[in-house]
Amino acid sequence: MSHLSYIPCLGLGIDTLSRPPPVMPPLPRRPPLHRRIRPVPPPVRTNSTFVPGGLGIDTLSRPPPVMPPLPRRPPLHRRIRPVPPPVRTNSTGAAKDANATIESATGDYQELQAVVGTGRRHNENEENDSGSDAIDDSDLFANEEFVEYEEVLERCGYAELMNLLYEKNNEWRKRKINIAITGQSGTGKSSLINALRGLKDDEPGAAKTGCVETTVKPTPYIHPENDNLVLWDLPGIGTPNFPKESYLEKARFIEHDFIILVSSSRYTTNDTWLAEQIIYRFPDANLFFVRTKIDDDLRNKSKGRKVPLTDEENEITCMEIKQNCRDNLVQANIRNPHIFMVNNHETDKFEFGKFVNMLLLKVSFLKRDALVLSITSFTKDVVAAKVKICQERIGKVSKVAAIAAIHSRQINKRYQDTILKEEVLLYTRQLGIDAESLEIVAQRFKKDREEIYTALNSTTHVILRNFEQHYAQYDKVVPSKWHGLPLFGRRVELKAYQKQCISFLQSLLNTCVKENNTLQTKIAIWSLISRD
Length: 532
Known about the structure:
- By secondary structure, this protein is an alpha/beta fold.
- The chain has 2 domains: 129-169 and 379-531, no CATH class; 176-374, 3-Layer(aba) Sandwich (Rossmann fold), CATH 3.40.50.
- The protein has 20 helices and 8 strands.
- A hairpin with a 2-residue loop joins strand 4 (219-223) and strand 5 (226-233).
- The longest helix is centred in the last third of the chain and has 44 residues, at 488-531.
């Protein structure tokens, strides 16, 4: 059989068919999409002028007209239309402006009420209501707190739980504050310490005063309201027991929160040297300069005059004394010294209030509450700070009183009355309307204490005398079947008592703020009368 390729159906034996089939060239591939798009003809330039689309038209070869720039918008301060100044049409408008100025100057009480908060203020027609709709939920028992207190109550008992809550609400008493007061003998260091502690020089526990050096070693004086607020009376620099060479080491300034350098005249070379060393060695120290006995300087200047100094002349004299002290310190390379002009025996005059405000401003955050609640000055800023802290305490104290109310109801007692009364007494002491503070005011202005109560239209002292009867008007929580449910019922009962206590404390704090404002106004009026 010859070597022939087999072709189906035909059976042809052709040699040529034995060759392999020719390789067909591949079909041409379609170009990619971007190549299939007909390109735009390039622009044609005629006479160096761009003509779109390649049109060679002479008219298009001209450059396009230059459009003027759009006007820029004026700056923002020019776009705002200024408010026209008020137009005075007659003297009535001036009178109204004067009245508005008086109202703004006497608006401290409204500002304090804003600090207290409008959300909790009672309606006069609903002051005996529990006030649940006006109470911030953040002041009420949280679930975690409730569980924690229940565990302590079950494990340790009621007394231990109350001790725990008391310590928690009075942590400010644990903050240690040390204030160092130094200066030459006879400058009024001891009197300044007594003024900061709210004591007169002849009261029990007051720092000993005198014209000669009465301090031979660092002497601590504890504040009556806070055992952890200590004012240190340091011997003057250059005394036998405290020579200049070892003064910084013995004074131990690094342990104090404030250093107060006192002078009753020009600051001496020793004073400026000490200030320089404190700033150099303790750059973070709170160093203040207090110029005392300003009233003596004004009195001595008036003695040599035929006509007494006016209030304006007194103010100018004080500024001259202060500028002299500043120049004296600046010459000793002490930059931006904090200088305060004070009268230790009349703290409502001169710059004693500014001095106290600066202490509050510079004290650390953790110690601020302790200093605010311990200080006895009643400047606007101090009173506002005291009210704010008292406001923040309401939620905490109400929790303690609510627990006491539930426990005491089981044994037919009223322990919550004692807790709430102590808190109200704290309000009166902090705002200077307690019996002891008002007695000092009465002695100063030669008035009877009952006369002071009448002038204040005081209701707090009446409430404190009949506290149980007054609180009974708020005590409206009645036993309910829901209170018997385990856990849930106790939680409902606690919140009901707490809302009641919050409502009561809020009402009393508002009253104390109002009486403090009235007292400060009366003191200002009585001071003017006594001066005349």
